[in-house]
Amino acid sequence: MRVHIGWAMVLALLTAVGGYAAAKPTKTPKGYIVAEVQITDAEAYKTYVPGATATVAKFGGKYLVRGGRVEQLEGPPPAGRFVIVEYPSFEAARAFYHSADYQAVAPIRRKASISRFWVAEGLPATK
Q1: How far is CA 86 from the centre of its chain?
Q2: Distance (Å, whole) CA 22 – CA 15
Q3: Quick check: 104 and 51 in contact, CB under 8 A?
Q4: Strand 31-39 and strand 113-121: pairing?
Q5: Which letter does DSSP use for residue 37 in this model?
Q6: How many Å apart are CA 32 and CA 43, to the nearest integer?
């Protein structure tokens, strides 16, 4: 009897403070491709953009930052353009980068720029 009363008290307490379900993630965390791209051959790079843009869309990506202003606050500034693309999940971001479609255009970027790419997982979404 004591065990049942103890669990009932724990469940009541969790419910009173918002509940266990409210604290659990309800969605898969978003995934992000983050890139720093220093363009060395602007004409060649222009041929990369349409294929990369189409592949981003195909994998559910959404550009959050694409060029634009960047202000150095600490440490060395980024070299060139700064790009952040949001995907439905970490796995979707990885799938984009490793896809045959993207790998077909990536050599154009590699020849036309000096780049660094990362994939990052966002915070878990809650209700």
Answers
A1: 4
A2: 9
A3: yes
A4: antiparallel
A5: E
A6: 27
Give the predicted TM-score (pTM) of the model.
Answer: 0.77
Q: Take residue 65 and report the two structure tokens written for it.
A: 């930052």
109, 47 in Cβ contact below 8 A? no
Angle, alpha carbons 71-34-43 (nearest 5°): 80
Quote the CA–CA distance of 52 and 115 in Å, as a whole number.
14
- pLDDT tens digit sequence for 7-45: 444 334 334 444 444 445 558 999 999 999 999 999 999
The backbone region for 12, taken as left when phi is positive above 0, alpha when psi lies in -120 to 50, beta otherwise, is alpha
Report how far residue 27's alpha carbon sits from residue 127's, in angstroms, rounded to the nearest whole number: 9
Q: Across the strands, what pairs with 36?
A: 82, 116
Q: Which amino acid is at 122?
A: G
Task: Report the DSSP beta bridge partners of residue 82.
Answer: 36
